[in-house]
Amino acid sequence: MKKLLFIAAALVIAAVSCNNGPKTNAEKTAAFEAEMQKIMDEYEQAEDQDAIEEATIKKLVDLSLATIKKYPSDTVALEALQACYYYADPEDLKAAIAKLSDELKQEPFVQMVAEGLDTKIATKAGQPFVDFTVEHVLDENPDGTLVTEQRKLSDYVGKGKYILVDFWSPWCPPCKAELPNIVNVYNKYHGDNFDILSVAVWEESRGMNWRDTRDTAVVYGITWNQMNNGHQEPAALYGIEGIPHVILFGPDGTIVKRDLRGKALEEAVAAIAQ
User: Fold this and answer.
1) pTM of the full structure
2) Which residues pair with 200 in a beta bridge?
3) What are phi and psi of 113, to 5 degrees?
């Protein structure tokens, strides 16, 4: 349900009658929105929404990409791109954007999405991990100077274990909502084959710092490996646009799955922890 809120929030349904199919951009937009709403209605009426969530997202993405391909010069393509860009395969998105008219390619939203695609393609499932280093803060001296040590992603990933990396921040309510699930997964599965790493990013964007990360970690029961003081680079290197963003890395550092949450997160870990 949480995943689909992103797409559902973008829908503004308009009723347009057309006997011979949509002709104007307004009619094309209304037809697209009506098809999106039909898919959402089926999802909302399902008895077990979790069971059909991934299939529903696929339907929404497929419809959006098909709309972009069919109407590459109409503004309905922008709405379709907005509806699917968070979930669509980055290579599919790149191909869809390439089909847009030159005018639509100049739209700020299109350029923003396009700029991040190469990063997402380089860090999609099946690709090797991209390393980064943070100045992790251990403590503060009496004179106010910070005691830090460099911690690298490669200190943990690619060392023969599956590693679940949670990109989060202490100011982020969805991150905190996901932490009990991650704690549960850690308690069930951590050991010789599996471990977890939390990487705090964007702390300063809400006026917080390493202390807030440390204190929040204690409150929410984070006892596994951590990096604080991550700033922008870790998220930027992985094309992360929102947190929490959880990535599962294989024993050799290969990216196994991205954007794991809730039931899907535990299922992914359970599958490799057997």
Assistant:
1) 0.81
2) 168
3) -65, -45
What is the chain's percent helix, strand, coil content, to nearest 5?
50, 15, 35
CA-to-CA distance for 197 and 192, rounded, in angstroms? 15
The three-class DSSP label of residue 100 is coil
Q: Which residues pair with 164 in a beta bridge?
A: 196, 248
Up-side HSE of residue 163: CA atoms within 13 Å toward CB? 25
- Report the alpha-carbon distance of residue 110 to residue 249 in Å, rounded: 30
Hey, how many other C-beta atoms are within 10 angstroms of the C-beta on 100?
22
Model confidence pLDDT, tens digit, residues 20-39: 566 799 999 999 999 999 99
**Residues of the chain below pLDDT 70:** 1-22, 274
95, two tokens: 């191909």
Q: For 169-186, what is each residue's pLDDT tens digit?
A: 999 999 999 999 999 999
